[in-house]
């Protein structure tokens, strides 16, 4: 059997070889994205990016005052000291009423007070007290109390449209509606060893409202 002769490269026919102009056009098409090759597409004209226009750059607000800071520590007067350090040993309504009265307000009606919740937010192994008051059909107020050196102390007071209040891993998250019904704003507080520090502000998907729990006095 004779060996096959090796094939030689075919000589291109006249007029079929790619010209330098054709190669340049193909390269230009790849660079500009004007091609149908998979993975490449024309995204159109790039959007102009403008830097924000800062108004009154020389002006800045003063730090929040004691009354404006929701996380300022405020001892609650006219309630017994708690040597054991647990808010479980306190009367929830008495603490709330004394705190509101100390601010010059009128203690809320018991029906407006949601069921008190005990939970350790200050990471000392002892429960703190969370109280929520519905001030109207839409506005509510959340107050958190802890024992600091045997003294009942308010560590947080927040008023707003509370679409949800959540506890997770030592964090206290307050959910409030936005103009877009698909999203809620989430304000996240955490104890930093000295106060309930504002940890984060985010947007989250809106959820189905939770089943409301009965309101009342002591748990």
Task: Spell out the key features of this protein.
219 residues; mainly beta; 5-stranded antiparallel beta sheet; 4-stranded antiparallel beta sheet; 2 helices; 9 strands; elongated; disordered N terminus; disordered C terminus
Q: Which consecutive residue ranges, at least 5 long each, have pLDDT under 50?
A: 1-6, 8-12, 211-219
Major sheet description: 5 strands, antiparallel
Question: What is the spatial order of strands in the main beta sheet?
Answer: 1-5-4-3-2
Termini separation = 102 Å
If you compute it from the alpha carbons, what radius of gyration comes out, rounded to the nearest whole angstrom? 33 Å
**Element string (H = helix, E = strand):** HEHEEEEEEEE
Topology:
Elements: H1 20-32, E1 74-75, H2 92-102, E2 117-119, E3 128-134, E4 140-148, E5 151-160, E6 164-168, E7 171-177, E8 183-191, E9 196-205
Antiparallel strand pairs: 1-5, 2-3, 3-4, 4-5, 6-7, 7-8, 8-9
How would you concisely characterize the structure shown here?
The protein is mostly beta strands.
Provide structural commentary.
This protein is mainly β. The protein is about 10% helix and about 30% strand. A 5-stranded antiparallel β-sheet has the order 1-5-4-3-2, with helices on one face. Strands 6-7-8-9 form a 4-stranded antiparallel β-sheet, with no helix packed on it. The radius of gyration is 33 Å and the shape is elongated.
């Amino acid at each position: 059997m004779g060996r096959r002769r090796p094939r030689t490269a075919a000589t291109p026919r006249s007029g079929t070889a790619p010209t330098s102009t054709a190669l340049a056009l193909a390269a230009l098409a790849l660079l500009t994205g004007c091609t149908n090759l998979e993975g490449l597409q024309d995204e159109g004209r790039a959007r102009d990016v403008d830097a924000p226009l800062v108004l009154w750059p020389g002006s800045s607000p003063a730090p929040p005052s004691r009354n404006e800071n929701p996380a300022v520590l405020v001892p609650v007067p006219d309630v017994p000291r708690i040597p054991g350090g647990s808010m479980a040993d306190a009367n929830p309504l008495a603490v709330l009423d004394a705190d509101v009265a100390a601010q010059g307000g009128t203690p809320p009606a018991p029906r407006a007070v949601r069921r008190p919740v005990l939970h350790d937010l200050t990471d000392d192994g002892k429960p703190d007290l969370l109280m929520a008051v519905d001030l109207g059909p839409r506005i509510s107020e959340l107050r958190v109390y802890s024992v600091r050196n045997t003294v009942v102390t308010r560590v947080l007071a927040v008023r707003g449209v509370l679409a949800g209040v959540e506890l997770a891993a030592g964090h206290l998250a307050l959910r409030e509606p936005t103009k877009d019904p698909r999203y809620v704003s989430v304000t996240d507080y955490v104890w930093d060893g000295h106060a309930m520090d504002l940890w984060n502000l985010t947007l989250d998907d809106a959820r189905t409202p939770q089943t409301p729990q009965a309101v009342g006095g002591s748990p």
